[in-house]
Amino acid sequence: MMLSARTRNRITGTLTVIALGGAAVVFLFPFYWLMVSAFKTREQMFTLPPQFIPRPVVLENFTNVFAATPLARAFLNSCIIAGGHVLLALFLCSLGGYAFAKFRNAPGRNALFAFVLGTMMIPGAVTMIPVFVVLARLGLVNTYWAMIIPGAANAFGIFWMRQYIINNVPDELLAAGRIDGCGEFGLYRMIVLPICKPALAALAILLLIGSWNNLMWAFVVLRTQSKYTMPLLIYLLQGEIRTPYGMVMAGGLLATLPLVIAFLVFQRAFIQGMTAGALKG
Fold first, then answer.
1. The domain defined by 62-274 carries CATH number 3.10.450.50
2. What is the pLDDT of residues 157-208, one digit of tens each?
3. Which end of the chain is least crowded, N or C, by CB within 10 Å?
4. Of 168, 210, 213, which is closest to residue 191 (Cα–Cα)?
5. Could you give the 3-state DSSP secondary structure of residue 175?
6. Cβ neighbourhood burial of 198 (10 Å; 0-12, 13-18, 19+)
7. Residues 222 and 229: beta-carbon distance below 8 Å
8. For residue 263, which phi and psi values (nearest 5 degrees)?
């Protein structure tokens, strides 16, 4: 028996919703388990069958992690580092993307852009030692700048902004600005940046996640506890013999919440930037 097109569409829609719902459960379950484990005792974490709802709810893990570590200072460090890195990267990537998108007759433009894209093929581990040597000679090791500067002008961000500007910033608008006497940086500040807000928001979320969770580089360049970020401080809670899993879960939850809140606040702009043709052309 042949099904009507309407029935097939309903079946397809239902199956799609079920599949997406299942995928959402799979991806959200680790965060849910982190959240509920933060309110459990050590014994509750390892009981079988597992407790999906903690009974009773305990806050001891949070008080212990604040008492044992300078978590508030680490949170401030993470905010300064992530905020500084995002702002610097947005400025450099949008400026580079604008140059590659609109200065088509610049000598060596294509070769330079190919070189920039080629850097995406170089593993981060290869550049780690040279970058550290440069920072050490500049006296920037164990400072915020050692976490903020590296990777700010990254190839992905420049490519992202270039593609968005090509597809969404008309040349006629820039020509009109030049006729009115506006300089190139003025065009970038007053015309390009306002149009590129969705792409900037999407890129900012991606940069924030990468910078906030940057554990390996923090291990390399941060030496004193007063400069530790939250991921580094939480990782160092793990011991060789015994790990305070309750404190690790509580710290992990506190470290994850800022990213969740940032995405919820900027999700509309993020989705708009992801779907506005930033990777077309």
1. no
2. 999 999 999 988 888 888 888 888 888 888 888 999 999 888 898 899 999 9
3. N
4. 168
5. helix
6. buried
7. yes
8. -65, -40
**Number of continuous H segments (helices) and E segments (strands) in the chain:** 15, 0
Q: How far apart are CA 192 and CA 196, in angstroms?
A: 6
How far is the C-alpha of 176 from the C-alpha of 180, rounded, in Å?
A: 6
Q: What are phi and psi of 156, to 5 degrees?
A: -65, -45
Round to whole Å and give the CA distance between 190 and 263. Answer: 26
Q: Which helix (H) or strand (E) holds 82?
A: helix 71-102
CA distance 165 to 263: 23
Cβ atoms of 203 and 93 closer than 8 Å? yes
Q: Which amino acid is at 70?
A: P
Rounded to whole angstroms, the Cα distance separating 207 from 157 reads: 9
With vertex at residue 44, the alpha carbon angle to CA 40 and CA 50, rounded to the nearest 5 degrees, is 110
Q: Are 63 and 247 in contact (CB under 8 A)?
A: no
Rounded to the nearest angstrom, the gap between the alpha carbon of residue 92 and the centroid of all alpha carbons in its chain is 16
pTM: 0.84
State the first-to-last Cα distance of the chain, in angstroms, to the nearest integer.
Answer: 45
| Length of the chain as a residue count | 281
